[in-house]
Amino acid sequence: MTIKIAILSLAMAVAAFAAPTGANARAYIDIDIAPPSPREEIVIAPRRGYEWSPGYWNWSGHRHVWVSGRNIRSRHGHHWVGDHWEQRGSRWHHERGRWD
């Protein structure tokens, strides 16, 4: 019985350390197909404490899919850099939105 408890405890400890590293992983997308031009959006006036995050083209694995803009909670002392595509040589790289 104590061996089972020791193995279970060890497995739980390993899972506790492994889970945060997997949750922080980022996937980078580089594709050969240029994204379409951005769509025009009606920008909703942000509420106090919120900032507008513009829409962008996301890659679904087979084609570009439009993700609509939205209000996101502001971070004091930071500014939002929205999702965007950068051309790197002959490929296109998707940069996720982030706070700077």
Question: How would you describe the overall organization of this protein?
Answer:
With 100 residues, the chain is α+β, with helices and mostly antiparallel strands. It has one domain (29-99). It is 22% helix and 33% strand. The chain contains 1 helix and 9 strands; from the N terminus they run H-E-E-E-E-E-E-E-E-E. The protein has one helix at 2-23; strands at 29-31, 50-53, 56-59, 64-67, 70-73, 80-81, 84-88, 91-95, 98-99. Strands 1-8-7 form a 3-stranded antiparallel β-sheet, with no helix packed on it. The protein has a two-stranded antiparallel ribbon with strand order 2-5. A two-stranded antiparallel ribbon has the order 3-4. A hairpin with a 4-residue loop joins strand 3 and strand 4. The model has no long low-confidence stretch (mean pLDDT 84).
Main beta sheet? 3 strands, antiparallel
Number of strands: 9
Outline the low-pLDDT stretches. none
Shape: extended
Widest sheet, order of strands:
1-8-7
Mean pLDDT value: 84
Summed up, the helix count is: 1
H/E series, N to C? HEEEEEEEEE
Gyration radius (Cα, Å) is 20 Å
Number of domains: 1
Summarize the SSE layout with pairings.
Blueprint: H1 2-23, E1 29-31, E2 50-53, E3 56-59, E4 64-67, E5 70-73, E6 80-81, E7 84-88, E8 91-95, E9 98-99
Antiparallel strand pairs: 1-8, 2-5, 3-4, 6-9, 7-8
Keywords:
single chain; 100 residues; alpha+beta; 3-stranded antiparallel beta sheet; two-stranded antiparallel sheet; 9 strands
Summarize this structure briefly.
With 100 residues, the protein is α+β, with helices and mostly antiparallel strands. Helix content is 22%, strand content 33%. It has one domain.
